[in-house]
Fold this protein.
Amino acid sequence: MPDRLSALDASFLYVEDPATPMHVGGVAIFERPSQEFDYEDLLALIGQRLVFLPRYRQRVMAVPGHLARPVWVDDVDFDLNYHVRRSALPAPGTDAQLFDLVARLMSRPLDKDRPLWEAYFVEGLTGDRIALVTKSHQAMVDGVGTIELGQLILDTTPQDCEPCEDTWAPRRQPSRGQLLLDAFSETVQRPGELVENVRSAAQDAVATAEKVVGTVGGVASALRTVARPAPAGPLNVRVSGGRVFAVVRTSLEDYRRVRAQHGGTVNDAVLTAITGGLRQWLLSRGASLDGDSTIRALVPLAVRDVEAGEFSSASFIGNQVDSYLVDLPVGEPSPVLRLQHIGHAMAEHLDSGRSVTARALLRVGGFAPATLHSLGARAAGSFSGRIFNLLITNSPGPQHPLYAGPAKMTEMFPIIPLVRNQALAIGVTSYHGNVYFGLNGDRKAVSDVDLLAGMIEESLEELRGMHW
């Protein structure tokens, strides 16, 4: 049987256009180790691990006439050097230069005639640092059969990057006749799919995505909270092809102090810091806010099977997230009241018993921030953009060092793709005592994303300084 894309995976290909490439990404920054770690070493490391990720050596092949969804086939011309690329920043090699490069890389769609991923080894950073920028298409990363590339190459201890003999041999590509025969065979069994496949390929991608909304696992539960369209504002505009990228660096201990002082969860405090930053950003643009003004965020959370044992690997529903719509109270001037509003909204979702706490995720192997961010982005892509203003993914990461080969990772920033008519997406990840934000924005609509990043930091400082 052909390895056919699921309806959801295919929808990410259909909905993609030059202005909204559907890949999730990440920026990892490393200390350059005392022993050599260069581009060739990264090639060797990724080459070692590809045996565990067969999808990363496969490309998408369309069925003639779009009589069925596309299939995955081995790339007979697979070239690791094409996918793993080398780049260098000009002097002085600042973080601002790196993030400008990241924005340009993330704005470029992946080549659909090749496996749908890329990695960039970036040298020239100040402080003798190196960076790894990854891009993986949402059609690939389902959290079960395929995880995000960054998850596979990171280890808890330094590793050698010895080249290994590659015994992989691509399977022969199916002919057009074989693709058509397989499609006709499936159509006999499920005749209704023929109309759906042709309609989807004819760019009715939004209808396709909404039709399969439940396949991400529970995302339809968010619809219970929708009583009206998302509030209008500067975040919901037609997205251009350009991108801007900014980051926020904060301490995990700050959020824990807020939790200890005011209650709630670390996630509540993160959302409150974002809310305060958005409030100041809107005011800086001359927005008129009243006490009831809100911005609606789509907040995906991993879920578990309440029938399974607590915190066992079997209790986690592999590639499923519940996506909750949370109205962020940007009109509320008090940071403590903002925290209370958000805590109350999130508690309703957590009381369902399905949501996974950060501590629980960290107890179970196989979960990594990059993959969970991708699942959150998949959930967002399944919704109409009319019901939320921005996507916020928050995935806990390990609180111990990770390594790519011998290189110690010091920072990690998620990059969440923009969907149609949404000009900002925020990814949040905790790692080794810190919490890192990646803000991906549209270059025209959110050109001042670095200003917003600074306001999120100020919002956290304000929240920390508040007392009852």
